[in-house]
Design a protein that fits this description.
alpha+beta; 6-stranded antiparallel sheet
Length: 246
């Protein structure tokens, strides 16, 4: 006992040297070996109905006299406004853009197909309109039933409606949460099947946000697709997570 007391400091130093050597030896043996890890990809997907519609259309009037062409076009503008109002579309949902003016000419050719002369045929004025509304069903129905205007002599060119969703930010957050949980559950299951435990999260990478028509074969884009032609859509996003394995 007296020996131990007299040499306590030396004994403690010796023990410390042994422990340190063990730790350094283990560190050397494991040097260059990568820690076990796993990478998984989770999916977040949600189908939804668009809550905003944009419908565009245009109509024209032509006359040799510019003033008369404007007068005829304005008369049609009033009739279109009246028609849209009768369908339940409010004035603040309709935008009449500035009319486009185009001078048109006709060309005469000789019997050999050579241009002989050209002459002015009149001013062609085109009026474009844009309807933007959250009443999707009403505007969609109106865009398909414009025969009344056409029958009244207005040559209306109606374009296919565009459909949008105004709560994409909220939807995206929910989908990121869903994709992250999906990836975590996959990683946990793989680690369990391999006889290990899921460790700390090392990295997380978000994939491209895609919006396509529901139940379609629409192609994805590297930069992200954004479908506007379908009222019913499906959005999806992926999350790639990397975990340590204990």
């Amino acid at each position: 006992m007296n020996f131990i007391k007299a040499n306590a400091a030396t004994i403690l130093i010796s023990i410390a040297v042994i422990i340190t050597g063990y730790i350094l030896g283990e560190s050397y043996l494991s040097k260059g070996k990568a820690d076990p890890e796993i990478s998984v990809t989770g999916l977040g997907e949600q189908s939804f109905d668009s809550d905003l519609i944009v419908w565009r259309a245009s109509f024209s009037k032509k006359n040799l006299d510019l003033k008369q062409a404007y007068s005829d076009l304005n008369a049609d503008v009033k009739r279109v406004k009246s028609y849209l109002k009768s369908q339940g579309i409010s004035n603040d949902e309709v935008v009449f853009e500035a009319a486009e003016i185009q001078k048109e000419y006709a060309t005469e050719y000789d019997e050999n197909g050579n241009e002989r002369s050209s002459y002015f045929t009149g001013y062609n004025l085109t009026q474009s309109i844009r309807v933007q509304s959250k009443n999707v069903d009403l505007v969609e129905k109106t865009s398909r039933e414009v025969s009344q205007l056409i029958d009244s002599g207005i040559e209306l060119n109606s374009f296919a409606p565009e459909y949008y969703y105004t709560k994409l930010a909220e939807l995206k957050l929910k989908m990121i949460e869903q994709a992250t949980k999906d990836a975590h559950d996959r990683a946990e299951k793989i680690a369990e099947n391999g006889g290990g435990d899921l460790g700390d999260l090392k990295s997380a990478d978000m994939g491209v946000f895609q919006i396509t028509a529901e139940n379609s074969s629409e192609d994805y884009s590297w930069g992200g697709s954004f479908n506007t032609s379908s009222k019913r859509k499906t959005a999806n996003i992926t999350m790639r997570l990397k975990y340590e394995i204990d």
